[in-house]
Amino acid sequence: MEASSPSDDTARAMLSDFVQLLVLKAFQDNSDLGRTAEPGKMPQVALDVLQNMLSFVLDSLAAGLQEESPAHKVVRHWVDAFSTRVCHAMAPDPLKKFFRHTLVQTLTHSPVLTVSDAVQMQREWSFARTHPLLTSLYRRLFVLLSPEEAVSCLQDVLAEQEVNWQRVLSCVSVLVICFPEAQQLLRDWVAQLLAAAFESFHLDSMVTAFLIVRQAALEGPAVFPSYVEWFKASFGSASGYHSCSKKSVVFLFKFLSDLVPWEAPRYLQVHILHPPLVPSKYRCLLGDYVSLARTRLADLKVSPENMGLYEDVSLAGDAEEPRSQAAQDVEKAISMFEHTGKIPVPVLEASIFRRSYYVSHFLPALLMPRVLPEVPDARAAFIESLRRADKIPPAVYAAYCQACAAAGEEKPECADPGTGTEPCCGEEALEPLRAALGQLRALMANPMQYDALSAQMGAVAEKLDAVLGRRKDEVCSEETIQLSSLAPDVSWQYQVVVDLLLTAFCQDLTAACSFVPPERQGPWATLFVRTLCARALLPAVLARLCQLLRHQGPSLSASHVLGLAALAVHLGEARATLPEVDPGPATATRSLPVPEFLDGLLSCHAGESALFCLKFCTAAIAYSWCRFSPQPHRALRSCLSPGLIKKFQFAVLRLVSKAREPHPVESKASPPWRPFCLPSTDWRSAALALWRQSSFRELLEEPELQLTYRDWLQLEVEISPGADPLSDTERHDFQQWAIHEHFLPAPLASGGCGGDLEVASTVLIDVLMDFYQSPRSCDHTESPTWPHGGHKGNVDLFCRLQEMAADLNLSCPVSQGHFVFRVFHRRLKALAGGRAAATSLWRQQEVLMCKRLLLRLPASVLFWREEAEESAAPSCEEFFHLVNSELGLLNTCSRSLDPSQTANLTLAQCQTRCPLLVTSALSWWSSLESVLCGRWQKSGQVTLPQELQRLREAQQFAHSFLSPDSTSPAPSPAWVSAAALYFAVQRVRKDDVRRVLKQLDYEKEELLGPFFFFSLLGLLSSHLTPSATADSLTAMEVCAGVLVCLERRKLPWLGLFQLTKADARLGHLLRMAPDQHTRLLPFAFYRLLPHFAEAASVRDEGFLHVAVDMYLRLVQLFVGGETTSVSPLTDRSLQLQGQPWPQGSPVELLREARLFLLQLIPQCPGQCFSGMAELLAGRADCDPEVTSALLHRQQAVTDEDLYQEPHLF
Fold this sequence. Notes:
mainly alpha; Fanconi_A_N; Fanconi_A_C; Fanconi anemia group A protein isoform X3
């Protein structure tokens, strides 16, 4: 217990009083405060202060705290503010609200880790490994919050918010450690999660249950059952959660299979050795999973049989050596045998079901030769019991007895050198290595003794081998190193060794460069790096470099930057002998060579990181140039990645304004090295000196090393203005210079734009759309912004695009159309040709990007004029084509001397060529009208144009129609009024829908057809939204009601299901329907089957033709898998309400349609079968029975006609 000074006590008391005041202001109800209630913003201010203080604490804990650092003291005092003194000094209600609020904020602060990260890393978040200050905070919160309240808070947070998985799972560990009753609460919660998961096949519930169980089991069987026991109890019997149906079994194995890439080997072994119990007919699913898990274990070089008999998978670290685990199993089995006198059941089971492990590992560990005691001990008795039970092969037992007899004469080797898996990192073990490194540094300071450097490096390597416990012939033999660059982890034992080596390398390089330049230092650096490329050490070295470069770069000193840059050069020098690195989900590429991996750790996103990137790149290039001065070009290409050289060009042009100025290049043979060795290195000056080297500039002329316009944009777009070291003015000037002075005039062959502004704009659009659809733009800690999710990026580039588009509008010939649409068409065409779910989702995202980008461009992009006459209608062909094929929006504007006439001409075209714009305007008219009127009045116009007035009248008609005394007539065209009425019906209460439909029966005939078409699209849209059960009910009721009206008035409606764009009356309405809705019209047709099965239209001559066509297209949809996107939930809801409705799944709908056709065909008159051969052409195999019935009935009608007497008179 550390002693506290009076000043600390005073500070702690002041902070405690301050926290009490803030809690009272933020969490006490105004009714409790009476007259003292603070008006205005005081409660919010107090809450903000508390949240900021907690955010500082959590950020500090996440960054890592040094024991005696000022931040550590601040965090400790803040945690002390939750002491019992505060609890007794305040009313319980506001205090409990504050504690619960603090717990929620702690669990949800900075939710940067994904579920896959939690699966991989949760072993590091146990109670023992969690920072003591965080566990102390949890324990103090739980003083006032009961276990039930704490678990309830966890449930609410996980159900409603994005969470920080590390803190959620560490909170679970604290709960099970501190509260014995928490075990049962968590087990009940997990049971509820599993029940919900298998009832609705909810993946999130499944993930949460497994993470909670594994985390609780990490704390040992004393507080929670082991993972093995829980898994066997949950899935190892016929009453398991998965035993209710085949779908449940598929769901379980799909979930387990998805976990395989991130699972620890021990969990895979549990699933293999204790698999879920499944019926024999589903054994193939289990076999597929076991095969996948075994393959993953093989990739990890872990045997499925190496799991111990008594091993607690929850407590195990990395997979242990089989011999080590077998020795533990032997000791546990002997202990159990000593207490019970019987062979333990796990041993008997292993002798049968795990024969390989039992014979290869367990028995050798048990039968280690030794001098047998005169009185048999527990081990001897256990061995004898196994022998009598025939569990030890006779030959093995005989060899054991013979070895024991000779044990007194010959000492057996009980260990194999080189089997250690962890380095010995005690001070005594490290001292020889530290001494050898010190001697190496002493040699660096004496250039006269450089000949002895190689010998001393040999001594260092020998001492390192002793620490690592490796053989001298051991090399790095792995094909790929698995490493998470987002959250690199280095075990404490390895980090001690790696830090010692990296520190020594940096110090040695600094010492050597103080006397001689790199090219005269001999091979010591190459030999040093070679010692780091050992099998066990290289992954730890790369992980530590990842921590330093990616996460701690700005805080590194100049000597560290120089040393690590030189280390990166020599690692690149040895790239041919090094395995590639798999950085996990951080990159799209599966694995990278070491130089490319190190380049990926450098970021220019923010001010500090951009300056560090400049420092590191400058040091690496200059060191490589000097170290390999005879052939610097070749060395740069082999030792450093092109990306690093491009980042240097980007950073120096951005951060060093003098680099943009014309300046004669210097003709020195190599870059100056001396400035890098000075204590106060001026990195900008050093970078500028390197930039102005003639030989270096010649190197940058090579195509693979050129910073192209696209490369520059891809780096520039990642910089968020809020973190940019440049001011707004400086950033604007730099971007203008880069685009218009540097890249625009540069030739295409050198990565420029060849003076073509359209090329520059096109590349900019491509980069923006690619970036904002990539994971690089996502920042889950921010609120949702453009275009989806939280995003970062340089939004100023949109301003540059707007400026360039405006310049092009003034200079580009209008006959060519606008380049933006050509870019959109090219990108969308590249995604065409597939209906797979992934392709469809990607295309929808691309369309969303097109829409968002259009909204940021000048209005003249949409409409432009082909002729000089002001009265001519603006040309909208390209925009109409994009809207008709991809988009759904209204964004209309034009500039003319006669705005009214221009607007009328434009909207008149829209009604026939692009009706989607008109319907969009009607749908959003309540929001759009005030904006249109305001802008129209600002342009000096008094009344709206006639076509806009027509839209207003259609909206007024729709509103008056819904009122009891409807008097407003429906304006023409009828489909516009029908669209307005349809949108109005969507907003009425469900109880008013029937009244509206009754009133609709008395409207004009031409209004009912378009209204029915809009209703069909609404019905399909509601079915395509899985959660829109209420919408499906309303849409179905509207469709059915309109159909009744059409039937009662004997109006034709079948033609709507075979509508073509050539149809004079309603064909243009098809332009409003997305392709998916058009293809799903057969689905809507047979959804309406209960409402027209007995209608008069069924007896019409053309009905059979339409019904058969719809059925064959429905079959094709089903075979193509497109009906899977239709939600069946609404069907069950209808059944519960007693509606005459087919069963919910597409298969059942298909069966109902088929049965309807087979019953209808015999009842149809002969004239219905004309043209049947053409209808069945190419589709006869869709349903042979229906085809046969049609052809048979057609033949029967033909035969009747042949035998009838002719009517001559």
